[in-house]
Design goal:
single chain; 355 residues; alpha+beta; Beta-lactamase; globular
Protein backbone atom coordinates (compact mmCIF):
# COMPACT_ATOMS: atom_id res chain seq x y z
CA UNK A 1 0.00 0.00 0.00
CA UNK A 2 1.06 3.58 -0.61
CA UNK A 3 -0.77 4.77 2.47
CA UNK A 4 -1.38 3.47 5.97
CA UNK A 5 -4.22 0.95 6.33
CA UNK A 6 -7.42 2.20 7.97
CA UNK A 7 -8.07 2.33 11.68
CA UNK A 8 -9.76 -0.85 12.90
CA UNK A 9 -10.04 0.01 16.58
CA UNK A 10 -9.56 2.90 19.00
CA UNK A 11 -8.39 2.54 22.57
CA UNK A 12 -10.04 5.01 24.93
CA UNK A 13 -8.75 6.12 28.31
CA UNK A 14 -11.71 7.87 29.83
CA UNK A 15 -13.32 9.78 26.98
CA UNK A 16 -10.10 10.38 25.04
CA UNK A 17 -8.48 8.23 22.36
CA UNK A 18 -5.08 7.07 23.60
CA UNK A 19 -4.10 4.61 20.86
CA UNK A 20 -5.31 3.25 17.53
CA UNK A 21 -4.87 -0.07 15.73
CA UNK A 22 -4.86 -0.20 11.94
CA UNK A 23 -5.34 -3.18 9.69
CA UNK A 24 -6.51 -4.79 6.48
CA UNK A 25 -9.28 -7.35 5.96
CA UNK A 26 -10.46 -9.55 3.11
CA UNK A 27 -13.82 -11.33 2.84
CA UNK A 28 -14.00 -13.88 0.03
CA UNK A 29 -16.64 -16.48 -0.83
CA UNK A 30 -16.00 -20.11 -1.74
CA UNK A 31 -16.09 -19.25 -5.45
CA UNK A 32 -13.25 -16.78 -5.05
CA UNK A 33 -15.38 -13.64 -5.31
CA UNK A 34 -14.52 -10.68 -3.09
CA UNK A 35 -17.46 -9.94 -0.78
CA UNK A 36 -15.94 -7.05 1.19
CA UNK A 37 -12.60 -5.58 2.15
CA UNK A 38 -10.77 -2.77 3.91
CA UNK A 39 -7.21 -1.66 3.49
CA UNK A 40 -4.98 -3.79 1.29
CA UNK A 41 -6.67 -7.15 0.82
CA UNK A 42 -3.76 -8.36 -1.33
CA UNK A 43 -1.16 -7.63 1.34
CA UNK A 44 1.14 -10.61 1.93
CA UNK A 45 0.90 -12.03 5.45
CA UNK A 46 2.45 -14.97 7.28
CA UNK A 47 -0.17 -17.61 8.00
CA UNK A 48 1.24 -18.51 11.41
CA UNK A 49 -1.27 -20.64 13.37
CA UNK A 50 -4.09 -20.12 10.87
CA UNK A 51 -2.35 -22.86 8.85
CA UNK A 52 -2.98 -25.52 11.52
CA UNK A 53 -6.22 -27.02 10.15
CA UNK A 54 -4.39 -27.65 6.87
CA UNK A 55 -1.27 -28.95 8.61
CA UNK A 56 -3.41 -31.65 10.25
CA UNK A 57 -4.69 -32.96 6.94
CA UNK A 58 -1.78 -35.17 5.70
CA UNK A 59 -2.06 -37.40 8.78
CA UNK A 60 -5.79 -37.92 8.24
CA UNK A 61 -5.39 -38.41 4.50
CA UNK A 62 -2.97 -41.25 5.26
CA UNK A 63 -5.55 -43.01 7.45
CA UNK A 64 -4.19 -41.74 10.74
CA UNK A 65 -7.58 -41.34 12.40
CA UNK A 66 -8.23 -45.09 12.32
CA UNK A 67 -4.66 -46.27 12.81
CA UNK A 68 -4.01 -44.13 15.90
CA UNK A 69 -7.60 -44.15 17.23
CA UNK A 70 -7.99 -40.40 16.98
CA UNK A 71 -11.21 -38.66 17.99
CA UNK A 72 -12.50 -35.11 18.13
CA UNK A 73 -10.26 -34.06 21.07
CA UNK A 74 -7.06 -35.19 19.38
CA UNK A 75 -7.88 -33.74 15.97
CA UNK A 76 -9.05 -30.45 17.49
CA UNK A 77 -5.84 -30.18 19.50
CA UNK A 78 -3.80 -30.66 16.33
CA UNK A 79 -5.51 -27.51 15.02
CA UNK A 80 -5.07 -25.62 18.28
CA UNK A 81 -3.20 -22.72 19.76
CA UNK A 82 -4.05 -24.15 23.14
CA UNK A 83 -3.64 -22.65 26.60
CA UNK A 84 -1.50 -25.38 28.13
CA UNK A 85 -4.24 -26.53 30.49
CA UNK A 86 -3.93 -30.05 31.95
CA UNK A 87 -6.54 -31.38 29.50
CA UNK A 88 -4.42 -30.07 26.64
CA UNK A 89 -1.13 -31.50 27.83
CA UNK A 90 -2.76 -34.87 28.60
CA UNK A 91 -4.16 -35.19 25.09
CA UNK A 92 -0.90 -34.04 23.48
CA UNK A 93 1.02 -36.67 25.43
CA UNK A 94 -1.54 -39.33 24.53
CA UNK A 95 -1.14 -38.48 20.83
CA UNK A 96 2.62 -38.94 21.13
CA UNK A 97 2.28 -42.30 22.85
CA UNK A 98 0.00 -43.64 20.14
CA UNK A 99 2.83 -43.21 17.67
CA UNK A 100 5.51 -44.50 20.00
CA UNK A 101 6.96 -41.05 20.63
CA UNK A 102 8.05 -39.22 23.79
CA UNK A 103 7.88 -35.60 24.88
CA UNK A 104 11.54 -35.21 23.99
CA UNK A 105 10.69 -35.86 20.35
CA UNK A 106 8.75 -32.59 20.15
CA UNK A 107 10.79 -29.84 18.52
CA UNK A 108 8.46 -26.94 19.32
CA UNK A 109 10.30 -25.83 22.45
CA UNK A 110 8.82 -25.15 25.88
CA UNK A 111 7.05 -22.10 27.23
CA UNK A 112 4.80 -21.37 30.19
CA UNK A 113 1.09 -22.17 29.75
CA UNK A 114 -0.97 -19.35 28.27
CA UNK A 115 -3.61 -20.16 30.90
CA UNK A 116 -2.86 -18.14 34.05
CA UNK A 117 -4.41 -20.83 36.23
CA UNK A 118 -2.32 -23.56 34.59
CA UNK A 119 0.82 -21.43 34.80
CA UNK A 120 0.28 -20.71 38.52
CA UNK A 121 -0.40 -24.38 39.23
CA UNK A 122 2.80 -25.35 37.45
CA UNK A 123 4.83 -22.88 39.50
CA UNK A 124 3.16 -24.05 42.72
CA UNK A 125 4.11 -27.63 41.88
CA UNK A 126 7.75 -26.66 41.46
CA UNK A 127 7.80 -28.02 37.90
CA UNK A 128 9.18 -26.38 34.78
CA UNK A 129 7.20 -26.05 31.55
CA UNK A 130 7.80 -28.76 28.96
CA UNK A 131 7.13 -28.80 25.21
CA UNK A 132 3.68 -30.20 26.05
CA UNK A 133 2.77 -26.75 27.40
CA UNK A 134 3.70 -25.11 24.10
CA UNK A 135 0.51 -23.91 22.41
CA UNK A 136 1.56 -25.84 19.28
CA UNK A 137 2.28 -29.20 20.94
CA UNK A 138 -0.86 -30.81 19.51
CA UNK A 139 0.12 -29.83 15.98
CA UNK A 140 3.66 -31.14 16.46
CA UNK A 141 2.41 -34.40 17.95
CA UNK A 142 0.17 -34.82 14.91
CA UNK A 143 3.05 -34.19 12.55
CA UNK A 144 5.07 -36.90 14.29
CA UNK A 145 2.19 -39.33 13.77
CA UNK A 146 2.09 -38.31 10.10
CA UNK A 147 5.78 -39.14 9.82
CA UNK A 148 5.10 -42.54 11.37
CA UNK A 149 2.22 -43.54 9.12
CA UNK A 150 3.86 -42.13 5.97
CA UNK A 151 7.18 -43.81 6.82
CA UNK A 152 9.03 -40.49 6.80
CA UNK A 153 12.01 -39.58 9.00
CA UNK A 154 10.88 -37.91 12.21
CA UNK A 155 14.12 -36.72 13.79
CA UNK A 156 14.17 -33.52 11.72
CA UNK A 157 10.47 -33.17 11.00
CA UNK A 158 10.71 -29.41 11.59
CA UNK A 159 13.18 -28.82 8.75
CA UNK A 160 11.81 -26.81 5.78
CA UNK A 161 12.96 -29.45 3.30
CA UNK A 162 11.20 -32.31 5.06
CA UNK A 163 8.83 -34.15 2.67
CA UNK A 164 5.90 -33.66 5.07
CA UNK A 165 6.11 -29.89 4.68
CA UNK A 166 6.11 -30.27 0.92
CA UNK A 167 2.76 -32.06 1.24
CA UNK A 168 1.42 -29.33 3.55
CA UNK A 169 2.58 -26.58 1.23
CA UNK A 170 0.81 -28.23 -1.71
CA UNK A 171 -2.44 -28.46 0.27
CA UNK A 172 -2.23 -24.84 1.36
CA UNK A 173 -1.51 -23.67 -2.18
CA UNK A 174 -4.47 -25.64 -3.51
CA UNK A 175 -7.00 -24.26 -1.02
CA UNK A 176 -5.63 -20.71 -1.17
CA UNK A 177 -5.42 -20.80 -4.98
CA UNK A 178 -1.84 -19.60 -5.13
CA UNK A 179 1.22 -20.97 -6.91
CA UNK A 180 3.59 -22.81 -4.59
CA UNK A 181 6.47 -20.92 -6.15
CA UNK A 182 4.91 -17.64 -5.04
CA UNK A 183 4.67 -18.61 -1.37
CA UNK A 184 7.34 -16.93 0.70
CA UNK A 185 8.60 -18.83 3.73
CA UNK A 186 10.30 -18.26 7.07
CA UNK A 187 10.49 -19.99 10.46
CA UNK A 188 7.46 -19.91 12.76
CA UNK A 189 7.49 -19.41 16.52
CA UNK A 190 7.28 -23.17 17.06
CA UNK A 191 10.21 -23.92 14.73
CA UNK A 192 8.23 -25.08 11.69
CA UNK A 193 8.20 -23.52 8.22
CA UNK A 194 5.62 -20.73 7.91
CA UNK A 195 4.33 -19.52 4.57
CA UNK A 196 3.47 -16.06 3.31
CA UNK A 197 0.47 -15.53 1.03
CA UNK A 198 -1.91 -12.66 0.21
CA UNK A 199 -4.55 -11.85 2.81
CA UNK A 200 -7.31 -12.57 0.29
CA UNK A 201 -5.81 -16.01 -0.36
CA UNK A 202 -6.09 -16.88 3.34
CA UNK A 203 -9.73 -15.74 3.30
CA UNK A 204 -10.36 -17.91 0.23
CA UNK A 205 -8.72 -20.92 1.91
CA UNK A 206 -11.02 -20.58 4.94
CA UNK A 207 -14.10 -20.19 2.76
CA UNK A 208 -13.19 -23.44 1.03
CA UNK A 209 -12.33 -25.10 4.34
CA UNK A 210 -15.98 -24.86 5.48
CA UNK A 211 -17.64 -25.12 2.05
CA UNK A 212 -19.98 -27.97 1.30
CA UNK A 213 -18.17 -28.69 -1.96
CA UNK A 214 -14.93 -27.47 -3.50
CA UNK A 215 -14.55 -27.67 -7.28
CA UNK A 216 -12.13 -30.36 -8.39
CA UNK A 217 -11.62 -31.69 -4.87
CA UNK A 218 -10.94 -35.39 -4.44
CA UNK A 219 -13.57 -37.15 -2.32
CA UNK A 220 -11.00 -38.38 0.21
CA UNK A 221 -9.59 -34.88 0.65
CA UNK A 222 -13.10 -33.45 1.03
CA UNK A 223 -13.87 -35.98 3.75
CA UNK A 224 -10.71 -35.06 5.66
CA UNK A 225 -11.39 -31.34 5.32
CA UNK A 226 -14.87 -31.81 6.75
CA UNK A 227 -13.48 -34.02 9.52
CA UNK A 228 -11.11 -31.27 10.65
CA UNK A 229 -13.90 -28.70 10.77
CA UNK A 230 -16.21 -31.12 12.58
CA UNK A 231 -13.61 -31.76 15.28
CA UNK A 232 -13.00 -28.04 15.84
CA UNK A 233 -16.73 -27.42 16.23
CA UNK A 234 -17.27 -30.46 18.46
CA UNK A 235 -14.38 -29.72 20.83
CA UNK A 236 -13.76 -25.96 20.82
CA UNK A 237 -12.23 -26.12 24.32
CA UNK A 238 -9.33 -28.03 22.78
CA UNK A 239 -8.81 -25.42 20.05
CA UNK A 240 -7.98 -22.66 22.56
CA UNK A 241 -9.11 -23.03 26.17
CA UNK A 242 -11.05 -21.68 29.13
CA UNK A 243 -11.88 -17.99 28.77
CA UNK A 244 -10.24 -17.75 25.35
CA UNK A 245 -11.99 -15.94 22.51
CA UNK A 246 -11.63 -18.66 19.88
CA UNK A 247 -13.24 -21.28 22.11
CA UNK A 248 -16.14 -19.03 23.12
CA UNK A 249 -16.53 -17.81 19.53
CA UNK A 250 -16.84 -21.34 18.12
CA UNK A 251 -19.25 -22.33 20.90
CA UNK A 252 -21.45 -19.30 20.22
CA UNK A 253 -21.59 -20.07 16.51
CA UNK A 254 -23.24 -23.45 17.11
CA UNK A 255 -21.72 -24.98 14.01
CA UNK A 256 -22.03 -21.94 11.74
CA UNK A 257 -18.37 -21.00 11.85
CA UNK A 258 -14.87 -21.78 12.95
CA UNK A 259 -12.26 -19.24 13.96
CA UNK A 260 -8.50 -19.53 14.24
CA UNK A 261 -5.96 -17.07 15.51
CA UNK A 262 -2.57 -16.55 13.98
CA UNK A 263 0.21 -14.59 15.65
CA UNK A 264 0.96 -10.90 15.15
CA UNK A 265 -2.67 -9.82 14.91
CA UNK A 266 -3.83 -12.32 12.27
CA UNK A 267 -7.25 -13.98 12.49
CA UNK A 268 -9.26 -16.15 10.09
CA UNK A 269 -12.90 -17.23 10.08
CA UNK A 270 -14.69 -19.80 7.96
CA UNK A 271 -18.43 -19.10 7.90
CA UNK A 272 -21.22 -21.20 6.39
CA UNK A 273 -24.29 -18.92 6.16
CA UNK A 274 -27.81 -20.32 6.26
CA UNK A 275 -28.15 -19.29 2.61
CA UNK A 276 -25.56 -18.70 -0.07
CA UNK A 277 -21.94 -19.73 -0.48
CA UNK A 278 -19.50 -20.13 2.39
CA UNK A 279 -17.27 -17.15 3.07
CA UNK A 280 -13.84 -16.73 4.54
CA UNK A 281 -12.67 -13.74 6.54
CA UNK A 282 -9.02 -12.93 7.12
CA UNK A 283 -7.51 -9.84 8.64
CA UNK A 284 -4.22 -8.56 9.99
CA UNK A 285 -3.76 -5.89 12.65
CA UNK A 286 -0.82 -3.93 11.28
CA UNK A 287 1.10 -3.51 14.54
CA UNK A 288 0.69 -7.18 15.51
CA UNK A 289 -1.26 -6.33 18.66
CA UNK A 290 -3.79 -8.85 19.95
CA UNK A 291 -5.88 -6.59 22.17
CA UNK A 292 -8.24 -5.37 19.43
CA UNK A 293 -8.35 -8.62 17.48
CA UNK A 294 -11.41 -10.20 19.11
CA UNK A 295 -13.50 -7.03 18.94
CA UNK A 296 -12.50 -6.55 15.30
CA UNK A 297 -13.60 -10.10 14.45
CA UNK A 298 -17.06 -9.52 15.88
CA UNK A 299 -17.37 -6.05 14.35
CA UNK A 300 -16.62 -7.46 10.89
CA UNK A 301 -19.24 -10.18 11.32
CA UNK A 302 -21.78 -7.63 12.50
CA UNK A 303 -21.13 -5.41 9.47
CA UNK A 304 -21.62 -8.44 7.22
CA UNK A 305 -24.98 -9.09 8.89
CA UNK A 306 -23.75 -12.42 10.24
CA UNK A 307 -23.75 -11.70 13.99
CA UNK A 308 -27.23 -12.17 15.46
CA UNK A 309 -27.92 -10.05 18.51
CA UNK A 310 -28.19 -13.03 20.92
CA UNK A 311 -24.72 -14.17 19.90
CA UNK A 312 -23.33 -10.66 20.21
CA UNK A 313 -24.76 -10.42 23.72
CA UNK A 314 -23.16 -13.75 24.63
CA UNK A 315 -19.79 -12.43 23.40
CA UNK A 316 -20.19 -8.85 24.63
CA UNK A 317 -17.06 -8.96 26.80
CA UNK A 318 -15.08 -9.54 23.59
CA UNK A 319 -17.13 -7.16 21.43
CA UNK A 320 -16.81 -4.28 23.93
CA UNK A 321 -13.68 -4.99 25.98
CA UNK A 322 -13.11 -2.82 29.04
CA UNK A 323 -9.73 -1.68 30.33
CA UNK A 324 -8.93 -1.93 34.02
CA UNK A 325 -5.85 -0.86 35.94
CA UNK A 326 -3.90 -2.75 38.62
CA UNK A 327 -6.39 -1.65 41.27
CA UNK A 328 -9.27 -3.11 39.29
CA UNK A 329 -10.67 0.30 38.34
CA UNK A 330 -12.43 0.61 34.99
CA UNK A 331 -10.35 3.18 33.07
CA UNK A 332 -11.36 2.81 29.43
CA UNK A 333 -12.46 0.63 26.56
CA UNK A 334 -11.56 -0.71 23.13
CA UNK A 335 -13.96 0.19 20.36
CA UNK A 336 -13.73 -1.65 17.03
CA UNK A 337 -15.00 0.14 13.93
CA UNK A 338 -13.73 -1.67 10.86
CA UNK A 339 -14.50 0.43 7.73
CA UNK A 340 -15.62 -2.55 5.68
CA UNK A 341 -16.61 -1.86 2.08
CA UNK A 342 -19.12 -4.28 0.59
CA UNK A 343 -18.64 -5.27 -3.03
CA UNK A 344 -21.51 -5.37 -5.50
CA UNK A 345 -23.12 -8.76 -6.07
CA UNK A 346 -21.40 -10.63 -8.86
CA UNK A 347 -18.18 -8.62 -8.47
CA UNK A 348 -15.04 -9.99 -10.02
CA UNK A 349 -12.81 -12.52 -8.35
CA UNK A 350 -9.87 -11.63 -6.19
CA UNK A 351 -7.36 -9.35 -7.82
CA UNK A 352 -4.53 -10.95 -9.76
CA UNK A 353 -2.00 -10.13 -7.03
CA UNK A 354 -3.83 -12.57 -4.78
CA UNK A 355 -3.39 -15.49 -7.17
Amino acid sequence: MTKAPPVFARVYRGSGVESTHRGSVSVVDERGRTVASAGDDAAPIYLRSTAKPFQAMPLLLAGGEKRFRLGDPEIALMCASHAGEPRHTRVAEAILKRGGFRVGDLRCGAHAPASEAAAHALVASGKEPTPLHNNCSGKHAGLLLACRILDLPHAAYDEPGHPLHKRIKTLLARYADVAESSMGSAVDGCNLPVYRIPLSALAFAYARLVADRVAGEDRAVAAVRRRVVRAMIARPEMVAGEGRFTTDFIVAGRGRWIGKEGAEGVYAVGLAPAKGPAIGIAFKIEDGSLRARDAATLDILERLGELPEPIRRALVSYAEPRLTNAAGTDVGRIEAQVPLTRKAAGSSKRRAAAR
